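Table S2 (text version). Query chain:
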Amino acid sequence: MSDSSVSSDTDSESVLECAECLDPADAFALIGNETRLAILEALWAADERPVSFSELRRAVGMRDSAQFNYHLQKLTGHFVTRREDGYAFKHAGQKVVRSVIAGSFNQQPTLEPFPVTGECFDCGGSLRAAYADEHLAIDCRDCGQCHGEYGFPPGGLNDRTPAEIADAFDQRVRHLHCLAADGVCPECSGRMETGIAESGECCLGVGVRVDHECIQCGHTLCSAAGLRLLDHSTVVRFHDERGVSLDDRPYWTLPWCVSAEYTRIVERDPYRLEVRLPVAGDELRVRMAEDLSVLETSR
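Corresponding structure-token output:
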């Protein structure tokens, strides 16, 4: 998108104005150079920032000062900012390096499926994790029922055991959905809109689901409404009183986080949902508004 302002749902002028917007193709061309990537990586590795011109050139290992300055100036203004005492990152520069570290640009790892904690909410079978196309999915080895599939950058696999990968995935999914439900896109920080869907293809099966979509970059997330309740005080206390710590339980072991079966529509226009949370022979019922805020709880 090369527009100089960000569109909104209203006719009012955007608060964001861009005096020197760079076309996306030109932006990628700027960093499509080995020396410029080396400059960004050297800036990332520096113990302290800003980094002086000479220190940055030594770190990159380029003797020709004029040639180094040429490449540095290409980055300055869009990926790097110049200060009185040296050079520092702009947000875009940090994103480039983080993407390289995460492996999103240059890694295509493979990982054999491995078992994970929990039982299938549908058939009681054992669960496994499988990794493909930068997504990690939890499903049942017996019936194939999906218990969640979300993006997981290749860098998240590095230096981790299968158990550690599963734990990192659990924490990432919780974080993604907290941001999305709060209206912040986990990819671009744009405005995320939340809606209730009653049908359609989704990992949850047939029933009610929650869809999050960023109006800026189009990033989407789909989940059961219960996933939003993992850190709600009443829900946490209800489980604690029955010997269950939600912090220690992967989200996919909690049926109300992965199955539409535990959510029903109470009202429409606007939507009102009720989520059942069974544990230890007891059950908590949580009524939620369309924006996933909790309206009331009952036992």
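Notes on Table S2: The chain is about 30% helix and 25% strand. The first helix runs from residue 24 to 31.
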